[in-house]
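Supplementary Methods. Inverse-folding protocol.

Structures were first reduced to a discrete structure-token string of length 276. This string, shown here, constituted the complete conditioning input.
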């Protein structure tokens, strides 16, 4: 019997997940399907009933449902609870289990593009305090980073976030950057700044150590102003597309029973769908 998986969202036509999973299904010769399903918020409970009846092995959840599906899942794993969002559903014996693979996607991307990055990494700067920042904090905590400084435009939002997640986190406003920069081995932008050409005027790359790694979770454009500035200073950079690709791995493995690889050809295929 064909194993079926899905991505639900509203709207859903921009999702690149069908292309990612479709490529892997073909590569592994699996009798499976992965389809985009447009589910309006009011239709979520009925969709979960279809899941419990066994129509799908599981699927991905995207905007605007990542928080709403929480209440509908039969169980949510502890890291997804900490992050406050579910992006992967796995159906087991008629029960719908919620997970979050964004933090694994973040780690998978850095592991692939900057091997050894956590070694000797004592302090990291995370810019932003939204949903994506929470996944990055959990990821850096998992890798044992000694001190993770969250810099946010609104200090109160950073303070609220770090008070909700256990870990070596400190909240700051952007004005703290000059005092923290020299010890920062990693800078991560989790905010949407960069999507439309924006940059952080206060972020003087010259204050970072030459060994610092700079990464952005924004992948449209692939080279954000932050990454362009960092590269000009000779710093190593990792773009955000790999996070999208790597976050898809755990779901595919759970539904189809094979752990897929993020190969250059897959990246090129998805890159070709991005606006340049
Ligand atoms: P997501 O859940 O996708 O991460 P979000 O919850 O809207 O998105 O979070 C957006 C983050 O980007 C916030 O940290 C926000 O800062 P504030 O807490 O001050 O709102 C940050 N952000 C968005 N636009 C920004 C801008 N123009 N300059 C600086 N920070 C910005």
């Amino acid at each position: 019997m064909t194993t079926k998986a899905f991505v639900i969202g509203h709207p859903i036509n921009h999702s690149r997940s069908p292309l990612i999973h479709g490529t892997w299904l073909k590569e592994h010769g699996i009798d499976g399907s992965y389809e985009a399903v447009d589910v309006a918020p009011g239709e979520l409970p009925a969709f979960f009933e279809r899941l419990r009846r066994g129509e799908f092995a599981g699927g991905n959840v995207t905007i605007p449902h990542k928080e709403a599906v929480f209440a509908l899942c039969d169980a949510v794993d502890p890291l997804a609870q900490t992050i406050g969002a579910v992006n992967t559903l796995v159906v087991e014996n008629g029960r719908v289990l919620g997970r979050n693979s964004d933090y694994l996607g973040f780690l998978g991307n850095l592991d692939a593009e900057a091997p050894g990055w956590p070694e000797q990494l004592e302090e990291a700067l995370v810019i932003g305090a939204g949903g994506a920042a929470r996944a990055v904090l959990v990821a850096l905590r998992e890798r044992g980073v000694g001190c993770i400084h969250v810099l946010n435009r609104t200090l109160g939002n950073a303070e609220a976030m770090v008070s909700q997640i256990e870990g070596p986190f400190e909240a700051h406003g952007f004005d703290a950057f000059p005092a923290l920069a020299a010890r920062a081995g990693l800078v991560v932008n989790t905010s949407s700044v960069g999507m439309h050409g924006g940059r952080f005027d206060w972020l003087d790359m010259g204050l970072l150590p030459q060994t610092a790694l700079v990464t952005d979770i924004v992948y449209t454009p692939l080279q954000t102003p932050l990454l362009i500035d960092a590269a000009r200073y000779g710093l190593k950079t990792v773009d955000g597309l790999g996070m999208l690709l790597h976050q898809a791995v755990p779901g595919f493995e759970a539904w189809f029973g094979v752990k897929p690889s993020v190969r250059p050809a897959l990246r090129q295929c998805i890159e070709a769908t991005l606006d340049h």
